[in-house]
Design brief:
Layout: E1 2-4, H1 27-36, H2 47-61, E2 66-68, H3 71-84, H4 87-97
Antiparallel strand pairs: 1-2
């Protein structure tokens, strides 16, 4: 599945969501944060599982405008985004990736 990593997210009024520094919230930034940020229960992940998250970001997301993702990579991203973000982001990302 090919996804546009420059896709931006909107808030409940239809304006582009921005992060704390005022930058637009993009698919790339959301996926990057979800794959690289520690989350509850990540201490239970093996080193190999943590490396898989890093490698997915490094090989498919980092610095790219488009990503070609396998089905299992989409599942992993959806799982991580679902844990890391609020409904306004999760809902939009899931619609794109479904």
């Amino acid at each position: 599945m090919k996804i546009d990593l420059t896709t931006t997210f909107i808030n409940e009024t239809g304006s582009t969501l921005k992060d704390g520094s005022g930058a637009e919230t993009t698919m790339e930034s959301v996926i990057t944060t979800s794959l690289l940020s520690p989350m509850k229960d990540d201490d239970k992940l093996s080193g190999d599982e943590k490396a898989e998250l890093f490698n997915l970001w490094f090989d498919k997301i980092r610095g790219k405008k488009e990503a070609d993702l396998k089905a299992e990579e989409v599942v992993k991203i959806k799982d991580r985004v679902g844990k890391a973000y609020a409904q306004i982001i999760v809902g939009q990302l899931f619609r794109i990736l479904d």
